[in-house]
Design brief:
Helix 9 (304-312) packs antiparallel against helix 13 (363-377) and helix 17 packs antiparallel against helix 18 (484-501). A hairpin with a 4-residue loop joins strand 8 (155-157) and strand 9. The chain is of the alpha+beta class. Helices cover 30% and strands 22% of the residues. It is globular, with a radius of gyration of 23 Å. It contains 18 helices and 25 strands.
Amino acid sequence: MNKGKTLMTGAVIFMCGSMLAACGKSQGAAVKQNLNWMTSAEIITMDPSKVTDTTSFQQIENTTEGLYQLGKDSVPVKGLAKKTTVSKDGLTWTFDIRKGTKWSNGETVTAKDFVYSWKRTVDPKTASQYSYIFSGIKNADKVVAGKKKADTLGVKAVGKYKLKVTLEHKIPYFKLLMAFPVFFPENQTAIEKYGSKYGTSSKTTVYNGPFVQKGWTGSNLSWTMVKNKDYWNAKAVKLQTIHFAVEKSPSTAYNLYQDGKLDTASLSSQASKNLQKSPEYVVRKANGTTYFQFNLKQKKFQSTKMRQAISMALDRDALAKTLGGGYTGSKNFTAAGMTKVNGKDFTDLSQTKESLLVTGHHKKLAQSYFKEGLKELGLKKLSFTVITADDDTSKSIGEYFQSAMESTFGKQIDVKVQSLPTKSQFAKMDSGNFEATISGWNADFADPISFLDCMTSTNGYNSGKWTNKTYDKLVAESKTTSDSSQRMKLLEKAENTLLVDQGITPLIQTGSAWMLKSKVKGLIYNGSYYFEHVYIEK
């Protein structure tokens, strides 16, 4: 399960290349442009200010459009932004918005929709877990902290179709942020009409993207996207419908795929091994990390030695091999292969002998640290329950974790695993009503800060409430330095601090094996799927 979503990961792209438009027209007319798709988790919300999960993000970015969208290789391309102007000092961004674009309730999309959206998200009353990502925009931090009113945020509409944004300091990845759904516009009329029910069903949500959503009641496991005839670039949209079904079991999904009822299917470990030579076999690599998180409000996890012992009891490569597909063992929170620093991977630069020790598999050392941890905590035995999502992969990770703990620490530990629907797991994490969890984070854009920001002491995604003043300082300093080299050094130190202290315990880097019908063309994958250019070939 992934809390949050990956926008900027090593993209797996399925394109027709430079002939996309031509082959889309000639081939697409001969067949029905209907797609049958699956996800492994249910939608939680369609509200851009409150979204946190991968499935919901994917739905929003296909039914709502912002200033930019992500194209091939995660490169931001203009969406509603017809023209972008940046001041010489990099602190003022001006976006000219396309005229005549509409919401599904008939209203025109204007600059005020962005102003309303951004101010609503940073307003503490909204309780958005993504309000932190606005940091760097003038007054954002103070608004989020409740020290200033949302109206003071550095964003304003200049007329009907011009948006002006003022920054406190340069943000190297600002254009990438503009392609992230949290920065998408929101229709004030609809939100005020539906109140707290906005985004809780298809009927209580409005859209301005390539598709509109139909049939989601707020709890059901199937729904449909339908081509939006009022979308400004509707001529480029070939698909008429996309039928979605939540399939948490890879074996069930593959059976449906074989029967022609799904055009894609995630694969189990064994199936991925058996089907590797199939021309329809695809490995999805993502800048995502699955990790074990302690609830540090619980005294039993407040010993660093105990957390390090748990980490050293885990054989991450063995876990990845068990899961199969594209999973790899991970010794970092930040995903490997995402960011290069002078030709070297960021994750390699952030590791030290100490961090590599505590993230390595060392059974005897783990047992020694565990005994010290018990002594520090005044315990004779450690007992706790781990919550996971209820899809097959998450269950398998939970089972592996439980087995590793028991085989390493024997009767000194008692681990129970509870699998819950994604929405229920998130609710427990958000309220702090858990002892430990196996969760995940997918980068929102291709920069280590997308990971590391999440574990600062005041961040809403820091469900375990890990606190480290040195870490907070390093992350804060990285946001204000104008020296890109110094910025990366600060982030490297922050990553290492997190690993050594085991604020979270990284397990695997996200990747999965899928089947994809060869007739499906034009699909873009940047950690989630974008369907605007997809068509079905005969």
